[in-house]
Amino acid sequence: MFREAGANDFEAVMRLYRQLHPGDPVRRDGADAEVFAQILRAPGLRLFVLEVDGKVVATTYLNLIPNLTRGAAPYAVIENVVVDAEVRGSGLGKRIMAGTLQAAQDAGCYKVMLMTGSRRESTHGFYKACGFDGDAKTAYVVRPGRESRQGVEGDLQV
Q: Are 76 and 107 within 8 A, CB to CB?
């Protein structure tokens, strides 16, 4: 069953996120639970899960962004796509992505974007099979506060 995450899904979503980023620190101060609750409350932020036999086996995070171009149609960014390692390759990833893309379409989005840091051909093949075009845009990422590859320190300057 594809559905929006609820308050009771926190542990299941975090279990999947630990598969996505196993090196992330585990928060013990409750800050992660508060961010989870904030996401659930925020308009335009939609966290989805896919359940099989009562167990959450996949998750996606859809960010709906208001826009003044394209006839004021919003656009969306998908983040944190995870399918439980035990069931990868069974078609569940395509199911949760189909639901997530339908939610973006239902919200009137004129485009949906995502980025992946993966260099695995299977990951890129998966996104292409879901309808994404890897050649449509070029993405750039900066992590504010970190030294860039060019050696620029301090604040981001353009």
A: yes
41-85: pLDDT as tens digits: 999 999 999 999 999 999 999 999 999 999 999 999 999 999 999
Contacts of 57 (CB under 8 A, 6+ apart): 50, 51, 83, 84, 86, 87, 92
Instruction: State the Cα–Cα distance between residues 7 and 40, nearest whole angstrom.
Output: 8
Pick 2-129's CATH classification: 3.40.50.150, 2.40.10.120, 3.90.960.10, 3.40.630.30.
3.40.630.30
Going across the sheet that includes 55-65, the strands are 2-4, 45-52, 55-65, 75-83, 112-114
Is the separation of the CB atoms in 1 and 53 below 8 Å? no
Q: Can you read off the two tokens belonging to residue 64?
A: 């709906």
**Which of 126, 124, 122 has the alpha carbon at shortest distance from 98?**
126
